[in-house]
Design a protein that fits this description.
This protein has 16 helices and no strands. The protein has 294 residues and is mostly helical.
Length: 294
């Protein structure tokens, strides 16, 4: 494998690490923060001297740094990628490394680690309370990452057996689903920049709000299906794909808000649409070959 091909392969692997980490981080973080009431927990004696409150600006910034953590996972796992793929239960190798080295046996006295229990003043119950989230999140990360990478390594055979149109629809659906990550981060961005107080629990339970993103998902899948062909033909450069999806998603969100849950905010629509457009653009670049490359 040439140096350029190796670098491209690493970028694809890094993209999977970033997506798998961000998705599982948000999913388990939201669930466990509500189950264990992190907001109240972090205000308790000793704990409040260790953890920042949930309304801290640093906590708001935290989600935006998760892609960087995903990239660091990619750098660490890249040297053993071939080993992971060759093993039937390669995900178990990844999870074992993360749990043993990244959770239980950290060099520093971190929460949930052996050193943390011995040398920190954090109560034992706090260490135990933190384990479900990080153990389940890293398990899901390992399963998604390895399963996705192994599936892609077999994609050529599966693509040959699957009707071409169905294969393209599945690929477009997968890319549209990944774009969901962007909406979660975009919503947090809007709340942080606007200074508004938003009841996230009420918003997550509002069916009209949830349907807004379902509508955008459907539109994105259809748009990816057709626009990817223009990219493959070389008549639609990447920057136009980015602008197109940013505009498409922004318009759809604005129209939905205006028709279903007014008032509509163009600023909010553009902010929520930017990261999904980036995710879709990168995904098209990584998952589709131009016809002259085939």
């Amino acid at each position: 494998m040439s140096e350029s091909q190796s670098f491209k392969a690493f970028l694809g692997f890094a993209w999977k690490c970033i997506v798998a980490h961000v998705v599982t981080y948000f999913f388990f973080g939201l669930i466990m923060s509500n189950v264990f009431h992190y907001g109240q927990l972090f205000q308790q004696e000793i704990i409040r001297d260790f953890m920042r409150p949930l309304d801290s600006p640093y906590v708001t910034i935290g989600p935006f740094l998760q892609p960087l953590r995903g990239l660091l996972f990619a750098v660490a796992l890249w040297p053993i990628r071939s080993l992971i793929l060759e093993k039937k239960h390669g995900w178990l190798i990844v999870w074992n490394l993360i749990v043993m080295l990244g959770i239980l046996s950290t060099p520093a006295a971190a929460p949930c680690s052996v050193e943390g229990v011995l040398y920190s003043k954090l109560p034992l119950w706090y260490h135990l309370l933190g384990l479900p989230e990080i153990v389940l999140q890293t398990l899901a990360f390992s399963l998604i990452l390895v399963g996705w990478d192994q599936w892609q390594s077999r994609q050529a055979e599966a693509h040959a057996a699957m009707p071409p149109v169905l294969a393209e629809v599945m690929k477009a659906l997968m890319i549209g689903c990944f774009a969901y990550i962007g909406y979660a981060v975009g919503a947090l961005s809007f709340v942080a920049l606007s200074g508004l107080e938003v009841d996230m629990e009420a918003a997550s339970g509002d069916m009209k709000t949830q349907m807004m993103f379902v509508v955008v998902l459907i539109v994105n899948v259809i748009a990816v299906f057709f626009i990817s062909r223009l990219w493959q033909k070389g008549v639609f450069p990447l920057w136009r794909i980015l602008v197109a999806f940013w505009g498409i998603d922004g318009i759809v969100l604005c129209l939905y808000k205006w028709l279903v849950i007014p008032p509509a905010s163009p600023f909010m629509a553009l902010l929520l649409s930017l990261l999904p457009a980036v995710i879709i653009t990168v995904s098209i670049r990584l998952n589709y070959l131009k016809y002259d490359q085939v």
